[in-house]
Predict the structure of Protein DA1-like domain-containing protein.
Amino acid sequence: MKVEQQVPLLLVERQALNEAMEGEKAGHHHLPETRGLCLSEEQTVSTILRRPRMTGNKIMEMITEPYRLTRRCEVTAILILYGLPRLLTGSILAHEMMHAWLRLKGYRTLRPDVEEGICQVLAHMWIESEIMAGSGSNAASTSSSSSTSASSKKRGRSQFEQKLGDFFKHQIESDTSMAYGDGFRAGNRAVLQYGLKSTLEHIRLTGTFPF
């Protein structure tokens, strides 16, 4: 799977994300927890230009700039809320990239549970792949006799990330909403049984998950 179009990826503050969401004419949003957005409308958003400096619990010297989105295809940009953990940011990006792929491939207007469900499947798959990669690096560093303090810190960070990843996976799996929760569970069953490629082809032809 490949997104054959250059799509701007912007890190934004909550206010900019909310404003962009209001500017979209279509889309299903997981309120009040929207943390990413795949845009298809032309609009101007405020993106973070320089990383802020932390002073105590306050964010200082964050600089933003307006970014004009022009419509050259079905997707104008992907916005992700700034400041989230790496695994959460990556899973949101995987989810929104799936939205972009569906639009660019000309999929029909899908039911919310089908579109959001398959996007959540991709987010879940991405987290799983990162957890597996982290587990592999842990095993390798544990078996090494010449472990250093740096590798110990990395191992500790990986263990923390693995627990964090398990939590984010559980959030997706236990979501109670119809579009995101029920949609994910139906999509995940289909992908486990038929594979991702066949599931996407069935969605393209019928607008539903295979059962």
Summary: The beta strands are 9-12, 36-39, 44-50, 53-55, 58-60, 63-68, 77-81. Helices lie at 14-23, 86-104, 112-143, 149-174, 178-194, 196-206.
